[in-house]
Structures are given as structure tokens and as C-alpha cells.
Protein: ATP-binding protein
Amino acid sequence: IPRHGSGIYELEESDFDILQLPKLDFAYVRSGSRKLDTKVGFEKDAYVTHWLISGWTNSGKTNSSKILLGVTLKGDGNSPFAGGIVIDPHGEYYRDLKAFNTPNDTRIVHLTMSPDSNDENEKSLHIPLNILTPNDLCEVKDFASETQIPFMWACRKLHRNLNLNGPSGSEDEVSAQKEILEKAKNWVDMILNCDTQLLMRALPDYGQQSKGDAIIGAVKRRVRGIIREDSDIWLEEYYPIIEEVIEGTTRGVWYVLDVSRISDDTSKLLSSLFSYKLFNAYKKASLEDRKAWESFKPAGVLIEEAHNYLSPEESSKGNTIAKIAKEGRKFKVFTIVVEQDPSGIDQRVLKQIHNKITLQLIPKDARALTETTPYMDELVDKIPYYEQGEGVFVSTGSFNFALPVKFPHISEWLDSNSELCKKCNNKKTFSSDKICAACQGKKKRDDIRSMM
Structure:
């Protein structure tokens, strides 16, 4: 029987040379279940767009996220490609990625409830209450828009005016305002620590309303439910943690917000707070100080369990994460969305994401992705059977096809991407001067002694 087609053979590394794949060390090309030696990455320009890393439990999605951050932190050797924040619900990211830090170069910082005093890059996760706005609280609780939200803004405005200008108004109002200043250091304290009658005296508009006490009581209960659940995290005094995070991000530093020991409501509040402040700072700079904005490193926001922020219901509310997913790219702010249930994410958001790493998924979620992702139609029946670490990578800014990939374990990736210290020839380092943290630390201590 005459042959009607060419022979079949297993792919080799040389077969991919013609494709000129980007070679940032990200993952290996996969042929079936066989990992090839060919490494693949993405175009640097394509990096600053939104990412989706999706996979079922134990598919390796957090490991893949760590490798993506590792590529970012490694950057071009001298500095990372971007900075940003990681909302870490399980306390997993810093442990592996702190390998990028040296005494002379901090690239990742751990914000946690229990920092290690021996690690100068671990810091306490404490947030001053006075930086919160009513909008922040509305991210996690439903407040009545016609009554409760205006009351919170009135409290915030009053407390700010008292600090700037002192008490004013009728004799009774002045007396009430002085008492508020003694009891409350910020507007949230004012709601929590001042009784209803005192608030009605200080805010006579609510004292004259027939339902004023009911409005105040409802707000007190909701705010107390948010703040008291994780009281250790909140500070009464001002501390510039947000400013530090924004400034560090512009230089390419990543901040891991370890929310593994706090409630879901507080986690969501912190995620929205940091994301909003970061996005707003970049947006403001792009409009008011273009030269400074152009010098900023891109800013990323990595969110796990993203359906809590990007479901159709949440997205329609216009929350901060959804806003960044829709508008962030024009201001150099992007999201890294990590999710095991992509069918629960708003389709409008999925269409904005151009870099997608798809690991093992159940059929329903595989179908949801193929509907919003080019080149994946023929893979919908294969995705549910991927092994751990196996997946398909689509980056429409880097290449025009779906690429089968295999991710190494993060420890393997770190080992293969670091170099031996040129001083001790023993420990490995990511430092651009090829000197390990131990040797840098010794030199730093010697320099200090020489100055004493």
C-alpha cells in the first residue's frame, strides 16, 4: 500500500528552533508526558499584562506562580522586571522566594503577624486605622447607601476637622466633640468607642432624625464585626506602611502579605486596601507626573482564590481588583490571578487576560477557558488528564499557539537559575555580583567594624 503521509516521530529540542520561542527560564516544553530540554518563557513586553494561572487542587498552580515570580525577581540580573504585592492566604510564597534577598539587595519583603526577628526582610503586618475609608469597609460588608455610608463619611469628616481646626458649633456640640477627641484617635475609633448619644450630639443632623439611633447602631455592629475579629492587626497610631509598599514597588520590590492567620473579611479588606492605594498612586503619577511614572517599575497584584474578587457578582460591584483587571494595564498595573475554578470568574475579566497557564482542570472549567482563550479548542478534552505540573501556556504577546509545558518544582528552578558564589565557591546566589548572602553579610560586618 503506498504511503499517503510523512512518518511520525517524537519531538526533539531542535524541532523548536524554527519557532524562536522566548527563553526566559520559565518552564520546559512538553511532548505528551515527556519533558524536553527546551526551555520557554515569554517576551518581556508581554509580561506586563494580566496573567491567569488555573488548576485544580494539587495541580501545581502555586508552584507555577512561584516560578513566575522567580522569573520576575531575577529580572535581567541587575533588577527585577516589576514590583508588587502578593496576597498569600496560606503563608507559602516568602519561604522559597527569599533566596533572592541579599544584605545589599532586598527584592522581596514578608509582611506577617509573626515576623522572624533574625530576618530583616520580615516585618509586622500592622495597619493604621486612620488610613481606612468607608469605601474600604464597603468592600467586605454591605452598608446601606442612603443612610449608613453617609454616616460613616460624616464621622470621618468630623474627626478630621476636629484634628485640623478643633471643636466648633453650639455649646453642646463643642462639649461632645471634646469628649470624642479624648476617646477616639481616628474616625473608626470614634464609631467603635463613642456611645450612640454622644455621636448624635456631635452630629446633630443624625440626632434630629427619627431613625438616627438605628442607623448608628447598625453601623457600629458592622464595623465592630470587621475590626474586632482581627484586632491585633490594627494600629491606632499612624504608620506609613502603605507609602513604604508603594515606594518599594516602584523600585521592583515585592511585598508578600501573609494573611494565613487572619479572617476572610480582613484578608479581603487588606487586599482591596493595598491594591487600591497602589493602583491609585500609579494612575495619579501617570496623569500628574509622567516623567516619574515612566521611571516606575510595573506593579503586579497576585491574588489567590480570585473568585472572591472577580466573580460576575463581585466584578459588577466595581471592586478594586476587578477595576485593575479591566483598566490597570494603561497605568502599568497588572494582575496575576491564581484560581482553581476559572468558570467562576467574570467572562469580561477572562477576556482581558492574555497570558494563561492552564494546568489540570475539571471539564466544566476547561470549557470555560477555551471559550475565552485562542488556540485551546482542541485541548478541552485533554486538560482534565494532565499530571501535576503539566499544562498548556498561551501568551498572545509572545507566540501564536498553545504550547504544552511542564513546570519544575520551585526548588529545582531556584537551583538551576542561581550561580555559585565567586568568593566561597560553596553557596549559590542570585546576586548580580555573584557573591552569596553569607559573604555579603560578612563583608558588611567587616565594614561596620572598620568604622568603629
Notes: The first strand starts at residue 27 and ends at 31. Residues 264-288 form the longest helix (25 residues). The radius of gyration is 26 Å. The chain has three domains: 22-126+263-414, 131-234, 420-451.
